[in-house]
Recover the amino acids of this structure.
């Protein structure tokens, strides 16, 4: 029976670290990843400098994900004017991100997370299929999560982000 308790305790500890509690008011989990150009990007790079719009999406070059990325591309200048940077994250690799970014002229970094480290840290992995859910975190200059957008409307995501930024 004690082995069962150990297993359950270990499972609960893993769930506690899965990112399920990443909500407004908590520190954003740190991360380091490569973008579509092979550059290393860290959340810490933006601390004290910019608000971070960290958006997760399932897969490059799929209809909904393309609408979402293009919406953020089209609203990029207005988002940037609010002092924010946009970072996309999916489980696709750098090569896939490079093609996606080039095809749609995306002006922001897209981070490769094929090992799901960032996706799991933020608790946005879809069960069974393992890709990221469509969720956006607004992270303040202080590194604290300010808002979480879970009801993302792909074609209007720039407007959703701008509304969230206006309330900071």
């Amino acid at each position: 029976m004690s082995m069962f308790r150990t297993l359950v305790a270990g499972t609960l500890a893993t769930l506690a670290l899965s990112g399920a509690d990443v909500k407004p008011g908590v520190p954003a989990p740190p991360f380091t990843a490569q973008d579509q150009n092979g550059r290393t990007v860290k959340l810490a790079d933006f601390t004290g400098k910019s608000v971070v719009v960290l958006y997760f999406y399932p897969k490059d070059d799929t209809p909904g994900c393309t609408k979402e990325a293009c919406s953020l591309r089209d609203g990029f200048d207005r988002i940037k004017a609010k002092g924010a940077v946009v970072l996309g994250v999916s489980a696709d690799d750098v090569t896939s991100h490079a093609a996606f970014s080039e095809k749609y002229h995306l002006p922001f970094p897209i981070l490769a997370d094929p090992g799901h480290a960032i996706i799991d840290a933020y608790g946005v992995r879809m069960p069974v299929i393992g890709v990221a859910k469509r969720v956006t975190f607004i992270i303040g200059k202080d590194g604290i999560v300010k808002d979480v957008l879970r009801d993302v409307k792909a074609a209007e995501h720039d407007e959703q982000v701008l509304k969230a930024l206006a309330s900071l």
Summary: The first strand starts at residue 32 and ends at 34. The mean pLDDT is 90.
